[in-house]
Prior knowledge:
mainly alpha
Amino acid sequence: MKKSAALLAVLVALACHRGTLAREGWQRMSRTDKTLYVRSLLGHEKAQQQKGGHAPRHAGSPEAYVTRIDQAYAAGEGRDVDAVFAALP
Length: 89
C-alpha cells in the first residue's frame, strides 16, 4: 500500500511540473492550446509579482503573444517557446 501511495505522489509531482515547449511542439498545437500555454506564462508572471517579485513584464493579450510567437517561428526562430516569449516586449 505504501509503495502505491509513493508512486502516486511521484506521478502527481511529474504531472504538475511544467517543462519547456520546443518549437516543433508549438507548431503542432491548436490555436486554442497555444493561447492556453501563453496564459500559463502570463499567470506565472502574475504569481511571481504576488510573491513580492517584479511587476509582470508582458501586458498584452495572450492572443497577440501567440501571433508574435508564430511570426517568430515563421521567420526561423529556433529557441523554445518560453525563451521566445521572454524576449518579446
